[in-house]
Design brief:
Layout lengths: L5 H9 L22 E2 L6 E6 L4 E7 L4 E11 L3 E6 L5 E5 L10 E4 L3 E6 L8 E7 L4 E9 L10 E10 L1
The chain binds calcium ion (CA) (2 copies).
Length: 167
């Protein structure tokens, strides 16, 4: 199903390749671990995940605690896939790729790591909370990747507010 949103129709009518694309956020480029936006614990960052453009965040945590990333939806298509890597860049959590009309399934989840989808409205979560027991002290990396449909004419986007805390 193609989503004939007004911007999509206008873009097609204009024969324009870029005019339906949404701007990205000021945190770009943040597409790799080396470019990650380092979060101050307890301080929110606002971003936009555009499809095909990962947003990578980092937070430092001590050993033996729980590192919590909470992402609240601020609108647009809202179908993010999450992954978490530890201080050795080892994979701790990953959602499988999915189409937006379906929901994500876990591809990998290390012991002591859990993603909760909360405040659902119309089957879509309003808040995503990823909790991880910290087996090591160091820098943890959260990656947000906006998903799409098989045939969306224009890239999807998601606006979010992200905060990391240590409990
Ligand atoms: Ca972004
Ligand atoms: Ca990015």
């Amino acid at each position: 199903m193609i989503r004939w949103t007004l911007p999509a129709v206008l873009a097609l009518l204009a024969g324009c390749q870029r005019c339906g694309l949404r701007d990205d956020d000021p945190l770009e480029p943040n597409n790799t671990f080396d470019q990650a936006t380092v979060l101050v614990l307890g301080q929110a960052a606002e971003g936009r995940a555009n499809q095909n453009n990962p947003d990578v965040f980092a937070a430092d945590a001590p050993v033996g605690h729980t590192l919590v990333f909470e992402a609240r939806s601020r609108g647009l298509e809202n179908c993010p896939r999450f992954s978490l890597h530890g201080p050795g860049r080892e994979l701790l959590y990953q959602d499988a790729d999915f189409k937006c009309h379906l929901r994500s399934e876990k591809l990998f989840q290390a012991p002591g790591v859990e993603l909760q989808l909360l405040d659902a409205e119309g089957g879509v979560a309003g808040r995503y909370v990823l909790r991880a027991n910290t087996q090591q002290e160091g820098r943890y990396f959260l990656t947000i990747v906006e998903q799409g449909e098989a045939d969306n004419a224009l890239p999807f986007s998601w606006d979010y507010r992200l905060v990391a805390t240590v409990e």
